[in-house]
Amino acid sequence: MVRTAFGGVALFVVALVSLGCGGFSTDKAVARCDQEMFAKAQCVTDAAYQECVRCYEECGDSCEPQATCPETYSCDGGGDDTSTDTSSQ
């Protein structure tokens, strides 16, 4: 009985991981935001860079730059919006 329950939980965890649920590690988020900063230097301010890292840590590949200057970032798909107006910071 315990093995069956443990097996079910393990399968559930593997399924979540395989779906790409969740965001990036800090290192991976920083690497992605470094690419953003290189490509859009004048629009990725210090505040925008920090928002970029937060967005990718929270949303992973669902994080989308919004093509603004200064740049803002938002989770793709509605309810997980993490966009922040960094122009006033």
Question: Quick recap of the structure?
Answer:
The chain has helices spanning 2-18, 26-39, 46-59, and strands at 63-65, 73-75.
Features:
mainly alpha, 51% helix, disordered C terminus, single chain, 89 residues, 3 helices, two-stranded antiparallel sheet
Describe the structure.
The protein has 89 residues and is mainly α. It has one domain (22-89). It is 51% helix and 7% strand. The chain contains three helices and two strands; from the N terminus they run H-H-H-E-E. The chain has helices at residues 2-18, 26-39, 46-59, and strands spanning 63-65, 73-75. Helix 2 (26-39) packs across helix 3. The longest helix has 17 residues, at 2-18. The protein is globular. 20% of the residues are buried.
Total number of helices? 3
Low-pLDDT parts are: 5-19, 78-82, 84-89
Mean pLDDT, to the nearest integer, reads: 77
Helix content: 40-55%
Please report the distance between the alpha carbons of the first and last residues: 56 Å
The largest pleated sheet is described as: 2 strands, antiparallel
Order of helices and strands: HHHEE
Residue share in β-strands: 5-15%
The helix-and-strand class reads: mainly alpha
> How large is the radius of gyration?
17 Å
Can you list the strand order of the major beta sheet?
Answer: 1-2
Please report the total strand number as a whole number. 2
Instruction: Tell me the number of structural domains.
Output: 1
Q: Per the principal axes of the C-alpha atoms, what is the gross shape?
A: globular
